[in-house]
Design goal:
alpha/beta, 7-stranded mixed sheet, 6-stranded mixed sheet, 22 strands, 31% helix, 24% strand, globular
Length: 462
């Protein structure tokens, strides 16, 4: 595999540069002195930002977009072999790296690298840790899968030996990472269009854990069933966190404020640490915070910095994000796209707004995920008071015969439910605006583009 020489910046072309992760990597290389070009289907705020930094970006994708002086080409798993630029790259015989391979090489450029993995919670926890690091004297380089308010971006290029990023299990991309510190938040059946089953997913996480440097640490959720199978044979230190005293770090005396944000006492091997107050709601964020505390304690960060960073962290973009109250209706936007994530999101909003009717507007993501988890999605959605279910967002996939949102809808047990096309949503909201109290708009597709239009309609109905 080709290895980038950071001491000799050259010309790099990104196929699909507008993605949240690809754009971040492009920005890092730009600031390291590389010449960056790229392409995408259309312009976006992320590509506009890269253009302002000096990148040359073309729309849409075409073979002619690759500059003659290109020395490296980077592409994502979403790029198919019939992509015109991918075909042209093969013809040019230019070294090619996947997004994950490039990210792994960037990570190797930093002595203290941190990779946050798990079926869900990666963006929130990476952002939470980043906030703690930013509260101290460190100046970390950050690559996160959402917009972090503290930096107003998904990327921050620092001037220290610290690097933090998410580590995604899809296509085993995180196997290209060799961090000093690894975090595993949870392991569940997911991405079954790639993995055979849960055992295959667990095997993948075991290999990721094994990539942790011997002088580093793996911080793992001790409540993952048989987590010892994941840590078996590791040469690094293993630290567990969870909600019972069987874990190295666990919480006690948890209380919540009126917004559902927790204050708790972290306990490390039986010893109470000072109380911590979070500014993000839900019990799941207590678990995320414990993983952050375990990491930062092992890095010998001052406790005041840890507590301040956790308290300052107000959430990542589209991660259980409060979008305001209009027309008497509270709007929450969330990225959840796995049944466990969806369940946690719904339970959090019902706890936070107890006594108020919760309407969920859910857009399923991927045909394969819908096929594999239809019953689990239905069980989670049945926790709502009202459901508006949209059609599937296909992303990278072609339709699968017989797989539509209908198979989820038919299994939902609540009576107040409807199945509509995404294009019908605004008309439904306009016609029934007076019925809503709390609206949870959730999904990993393009449902976020409907949040502001829904708010505008409800605002006019006030």
């Amino acid at each position: 595999m080709y290895t980038i020489d950071f001491s000799k910046p050259t010309s790099v072309h990104f196929i699909g540069i507008g993605g949240i992760s690809m754009s971040g990597l492009a920005e890092i290389l730009l600031k390291e002195g590389f010449r960056v070009s790229g392409s995408d289907s259309k312009e976006s705020p992320l590509t506009q930002h890269l253009t302002e930094l000096g990148a040359q970006i073309a729309y849409p994708q075409a073979a002619a977009n690759i500059p003659d002086d290109t020395r490296i080409i980077v592409y994502t798993a979403a790029i198919h072999p019939d992509n015109p630029e991918f075909i042209r790259a093969k013809e040019l015989d230019v070294p090619m790296l996947t997004r994950a391979q490039l990210l792994g090489q960037i990570m190797a450029h930093y002595a203290r690298s941190i990779a946050v993995a798990g079926t869900h919670g990666k963006t929130t926890t990476t952002s939470m840790i980043s906030q703690v690091l930013l509260c101290g004297q460190e100046d970390p380089t950050i690559s996160v899968g959402g917009i972090l308010k503290a930096i107003g971006s998904n990327i921050h290029v620092g001037n220290s030996d610290l690097f933090i990023t998410e580590a995604c299990e899809y296509t085993n991309s995180y196997h290209s990472f060799f961090p000093k510190y690894s975090i595993i938040l949870n392991i569940e059946a997911e991405h079954l269009d790639f993995f055979k089953d849960l055992a295959d997913v667990r095997s993948s996480f075991h290999k990721f854990a094994g990539n942790t440097k011997a002088d580093g640490a793996l911080i793992i959720n001790g409540e993952i069933p048989d987590y010892q199978e994941i840590t078996e044979g590791l040469s690094c230190q293993v630290i567990t966190f969870g909600f019972t005293d069987a874990c190295d770090y666990y919480p006690k005396d948890i209380t919540y404020n009126e917004l559902g944000c927790a204050t708790f006492t972290p306990v490390h091997k039986g010893e109470d640490l000072p109380r911590v107050s979070l500014s993000v709601p839900g019990l799941h964020n207590v678990g995320n915070a414990l993983s952050c505390i375990a990491l930062c304690q092992d890095m010998d960060l001052p406790w005041e910095q840890i507590a301040e960073g956790l308290h300052r962290f107000g959430g990542a973009d589209r991660r259980f994000q409060y979008k305001g109250k209009v027309g008497g209706v509270t709007i929450i936007d969330d990225y959840a796209h796995h049944p466990a994530e969806l369940k946690a999101s719904i339970l959090s909003v019902k706890e936070l707004y107890a006594g108020r009717k919760v309407t969920g507007i859910f857009q399923p993501h991927l045909y394969t995920r819908t096929r594999d988890f239809a019953a689990d999605f239905a069980a989670s959605l049945s926790l709502l008071d009202e459901l508006i279910l949209l059609d599937i967002y296909p992303a990278r996939e072609e339709p699968i015969p017989g797989v539509t949102s209908q198979i989820i809808f038919d299994a939902v047990t609540i009576a107040d439910k409807r199945l509509i096309r995404k294009e019908e949503l605004l008309d439904v909201v306009a016609a029934e605006a007076g019925k809503f109290e709390v609206v949870l708009m959730v999904g990993a597709g393009n449902i976020e583009l409907l949040v502001d239009p829904v708010k505008q309609i409800l605002d006019k109905k006030e």
